[in-house]
Specification:
There is one protein chain. The protein is mostly helical. The strands form six sheets. The protein has a four-stranded mixed β-sheet with strand order 3-12-9-4. A four-stranded antiparallel β-sheet has the order 5-6-17-13. Strands 14-15-16 form a three-stranded antiparallel β-sheet, with no helix packed on it. The longest helix has 29 residues, at about 880-905.
Amino acid sequence: MSQLRQAPSSFLNKIKNASDLLHLSSESLPKAPDGLTDTEAAPTALNKPADHGVVYKLIDDIQGAIQRGVPVELNEQTVLAVVDALRHGKTVGVDDRYMLLEKLFTLAARLPPGSNVQSKLENAMVEFLWHDLPHPPVTYLGKKYAHRTADGSFNNIYLPDLGKAGMPYARSVQAKNPIPYSSLPDPGMIFDYLLRRDGSVPHPSGISSLLFAFANIIIHSLFKTDERTVSINNTSSYLDLSPLYGDSEAAQKSVRVSDGRGLLFEDTFADSRLLLMPPSTPALLIIFSRNHNYIATKLLQINEQGTYRNPPPTNDLAALITQDDEIFNKARPSTPFLLLFVSDWDAVERHVSSTADTSYIGAILGLSKTGNPWRLDPLEELRGKGHELLERGRGNAVSVEFNLLYRWHATISAPDAAWTEDLMQKIFPGTPWDSITTTEFRQRFQGPCFGATAASPKGADVPPAAFMRPNLGGGVFNSSTTGTVRGSPSGLSAAPPSTWTFNGLRRDLQTGRFDDSALANILQNGTEAVAQAFRARGTPDVMRVVEMLAIEQSRSWGVCTLNEFRQFLGLKAYATFEEWNPNPEIANAARALYSHIDRLELYVGMQAEDSKKPGPGAGLCPGYTISRAILADAVALIRGDRFYTTDFTPYNLSAWGFQDCAMDKTDANGAFGGGIGKLLLRNLPSNYSYNSTYALFPFYTPKTISSALQALGLDSQYALDRPIKTPRVVSVNSWAGVTAVLKDYRTFNVKYGDAVRALTNGYGFFIAWDAPPAHIADRDLIQKALFPDQNALLGYGTFYGQMTSQLIREKSFSLVGQALRSIDIVQEVLNLVPVHWISHHIAGIPMKTKANPNGAYTEQEVYQFMETVFSFIFLDLHPETGWILRTNAQKVATIILTYVQGHINALRGRTNIDSQIKGAALNYLSGEKKDEYPFLRRLAESGRPTDILSYNVLGVIVTSSANYAQSDYSFHIIIDEWELMDPLRCIAAAQIVNFYIDDARAKERAEIIKLVKQNTPEGNARLQGYVLEAMRLDPQIPGLFRSVIADADIQQGSGMSPIKVQKGDSIFVSIRDAGFDRAIFGPDPTVVDPTRPIHYYTMFGVGMHECLGRWFVQATMPHVIRSVFSLKNIRRAPGQAGKLNRFDYTLFGSTPASMFMDSRADVTPWPSSMTLLYDV
């Protein structure tokens, strides 16, 4: 090869030159006046090649090929690169470490210049790279583009009016059938022949009327026809929840508090049209209103960027408005996205909305009942076969065809039909439904009441749009029942939306809220009422005039025929009326009205078409045309929305808000991925239980979902009956009151027994028992096994201190060029110390470490095991997360119990082959021998059944793993019941370190460092006092709960009146407030005094449930604190990394509490990270 490369400089070049000389001599003279050939005259920029002879070109090509080298090196890496691209190019993406693109560039470079193959490859690469990015970009940076406008403008940044409120409807289909208006049948006759309800036909899928109340919110978010110019849509073409937020700046302002917190007025919405709906529609919209305020409140509390001021800056109006707008706009997309999540993709035939219930789509597709969590997700970034991006976020404009499609009056339930009749009777007293004309109806519903808000002077929608399924609403007519509807400025629309009411509900004079139970009653009634089936002759008589108006409106819009619409969708046109609807009566009636199938009007044809039969993928069961069309509309609606796609980012919503909107694509939430339960459980927590089918599957009737769950064998996991409101919570805040409640275990029982039994096959363990014999027997068993002699505590303390120091050494890292080290003291040390203690001394969990690489679980995994089980038992007070927490805890408990039982059996010398194999495997995984578990050995020697012993070990583990790290929010916990409290000790250790590392405690920190260096018995006792003071002033838990077994008076002391409680009440015992009681801790309880008597501290409980962990903490915590504060010049790392990522809130009116946010943007009771620096 080297000889060939040298040849051109000698022999080959001579041949080339000779042949080129012969070629030149054979050419004719140039004819151009300038004496130049065309090649010579060509501009240099054109790179026109010189003209050479055949021999010259051949030799030159050979030389070029030799110089460029082999085009493709067929080696292993090349093969792997091609295989990877073929396998993953359309899925997870190409692994660029295989250098496929670079190989393609090399190939192009080594092909003959100007060759056809080279040109095609270059073109393909340019096209591929061009398609990497959208052209033009879909969004821009800046506040102008980050959030929705009130009227929907600028969803498409290049076509700002696309989909904006006040713009004309789109038309999707060209009408080509010239049907004279005079030849169309009378709308009243059409109703009487084809639509009037003939008996009751319950929905075949058992869908409840609440689904159609939800659909009604979606429909009114998208359609609001102008009463004067019917071609105009006065709301946006986006699923922006405009019935809640308004469709203009003025309407939006009418529902906002505007006080710097980003809130809406309590239980308020902007669109008065929904007051003309059955009560389940406005009640459900109020749940969305509450959810907005929940999100806004959390955003202000969490304050991710640290830019919000709480309380808001009332003395700086500009700053207040800026803060209010930012919080409002970050909270706003989260609530509509929940609407989309609520629109169950498992029922894809349902509307797709943007708020929180895949339950809606699940019901539409009929997958919820089958336990299938699959959801169609149209929001993701997709690429075509040519690598081109499938458009997203380009905007949307709703069309008249779909305005007509979403009028589902046939599904009106019997209770809603009766409610509507009552309303219409008040508006048209004594008038038969058949005699109401469209003219009379329009006249009666003139004025701003109908579809208008106080901020939208244009007034109302035309009746068909306002009465779109599900129909009418209440509370707007005068109580005199004179038949008039409030439309004057002094009527409903002139009143602020925050004063509106419906269905006889009354607002609380102080809060402005409706009663939770009253709202829940309306919603649960909606769940129990079965919807009616989609069908011809299914629309209630009372809707006759509304249907006539719909037919008239469709004609005024000049829409296409049914067959034209079907052909537009790619569906087969109907050839006969019988094909359209096989029912002979319906087909013959339609033939009598229209003569020919091609003349069948779109609206009438969709409403009276034969409907689908229920089955997998078909849950909503509308007519076939509607079923197909709503899927296309749903994808266009939400995929075209910039704020559900390209601008749906953690920055625009906040990291926590983005995480809160995450769609559950599994069945882990108990609703097979459905999302409506999250809204109901979050905003009506006292009225639904975590496993209530009324919350998790509210779009199906209880009878339907009960049968479905029985068929799946899952019914025992759910509460199938109508929910009962949970007992009231009474807060006890004084030290005297707290100690009185904790001592009286007979009157005030612990509340977590059910959770404990759920993890132990119904047995429980002693911390959950209030009966002294059982409690004491198992407690003594554990106590003797843990503390066989006085040296046990000393040994545990030594272990904790040594492990803390070891982890600091192992996990610290040096800063470049500095005598300085950094350590995440929470995540890498304090959270893991008790995990090692449990693994080595208690349970023998096979943990994977450098010393034991054969272990099954990492340190962090074992910590998460403990955190999960502990949270389920002690912190599970939020119904919206109850199912997930229980499911995960049961999985973890099974893992732990399996290992513990295996060790106990091995220690007992079980001789069967199964036990021997398991024992050998456990010893291999744990890296330890069976005689290295003295605690388990002592338990094994007790003679108690293995499973009973394992349940008690689980109790020790749960109460001794996660609390060395936290400090604040364990708000719902029962620290007094945590026998060893290691979980809480994790919490406590983190908060103790955080408390004294703060500059505000520099004096105390200096004293602690002094005591650490002394290491004397007196100094250790004083150090213990500092530990207890930090736990009092920054408690691991703000309080705990008890159940009242009998009526009682709780004495509060200090001359305060006793608190009267009744059987069935729940008590919140405020550990935090008790620790600040001036009667015990002096006029300034915030003063740190390490010499206080130990019995002042209530965080370990009192009485029978006093925690064994009191002595364990006192023995081990000083060792941990000593290891940390012995580090030279220990201090916080700069910035947020050096702080606990926590936020504060108030419990039960007065008790301050805290929560933390972890690196995944999840809110948790556990501190997850705090970086400290120290010198070396």
